[in-house]
Amino acid sequence: MTRTPNFVSWRAAILHRADDNIERLKRQLERLGVTVLVQWKPLDLAETPADIVLVDADQGWDDLLPWDGDDAPVPVVALLGSEAPGRIAWALGKGAGALIAKPVTASSVYPALVLATHAHHERTAVKARIAGLEERLRLRPIVYDAMRSIMAVQGGDETGAYRTLCRLAMQRRLTVEHVAAAIVAGHEPVPRAM
């Protein structure tokens, strides 16, 4: 089971015009221990640090949030009062992982924060995994070059050369790709028969 986060000491940026909904939202966030800043101008996280962003998806525009959905640096919650598909698509395109329907109710705030935070962590983990796999794929020719060097020295086959690379990687506590790169670059000697 996934643990639900504690939002005490978090900073929230609410990108919305001030109104009664936002006052209710702000009070509920403050009850959860969140420091809140309300503004209706484009967000600059360097100027306005935030751990989570709640944004008016009904009237938001592209420059309001300076990222695309997959690049959202923090969890995003959409505040939405309409069912317009274009507004929902805009919110998703900006990385919204949860929705709070307007008019805002106190009981909708905490679940939305939890869902947005979870979605953001999942998205970040997937991006990191893809980046790791892409690097491994990019380094695959180097692994093969190292295997050919090992086969030339040891006289074995590809399976034996790969086992040698794996054994070296475990001994050095590095990835196979990094050991192979060190062998190809000449920083690691080509291992003799083990």
UniProtKB/TrEMBL annotation:
SMART domains: ANTAR. InterPro entries: AmiR_N (IPR049021), ANTAR (IPR005561), CheY-like_superfamily (IPR011006), Sig_transdc_resp-reg_antiterm (IPR008327), WH-like_DNA-bd_sf (IPR036388). One of its GO terms (molecular function) is RNA binding. Gene3D superfamilies: 3.40.50.2300, Winged helix-like DNA-binding domain superfamily/Winged helix DNA-binding domain (1.10.10.10). Coiled coil: none annotated. It comes from the Bacteria. Residues 123-184 form the ANTAR domain. It holds the Pfam family ANTAR. This is ANTAR domain-containing protein. It comes from Mesorhizobium atlanticum.
